Amino acid sequence: MITVHYFARLRELTGKGEESLDRAPLTVQELLDWAETTYPGFGKDTIHVAVNEEYARKEDVIQAGDVCAFIPPVSGG
After folding, report:
1. Coil/strand/helix, residue 36
2. Which residues contact 34 (CB under 8 A, 6 or more apart)?
3. Which of 1, 11, 37, 69 could cysteine-pair with 50, CB 3.0–4.6 Å?
4. Across-strand partners of 70?
């Protein structure tokens, strides 16, 4: 199982703050593709992913027990 956390607009889009997925192992890119398919409008091309509290590259592999966070772009002023 992988635990996935959603923040900001992604929490509103998915209707949840986190969920567990039984899909390991998979790459960060595969996780983003899954999210875009599951939640249309997710915006996979602008989302950053952290795995176990470290930013991950799209080719990094996510293993069972990992905790992932989708981090949308933020703006401020």
Report:
1. helix
2. 21, 23, 26
3. 69
4. 6, 49
For 11-63, how does the pLDDT look when each residue is reduced to its tens digit (9 = 90+)? 999 999 999 999 889 999 999 999 999 999 999 999 999 999 999 999 999 99
Count Cα neighbours of 22 within 13 Å in the Cβ-side half-sphere. Answer: 0
For the record, the structure tokens of 61 come out as 């592999």
- CA-to-CA dists, residue 31 to 10, 21, 25, angstroms: 14, 10, 10
In DSSP terms, which residues pair with 55 in a beta bridge? 50
Strands 2-6, 67-71: pairing is parallel
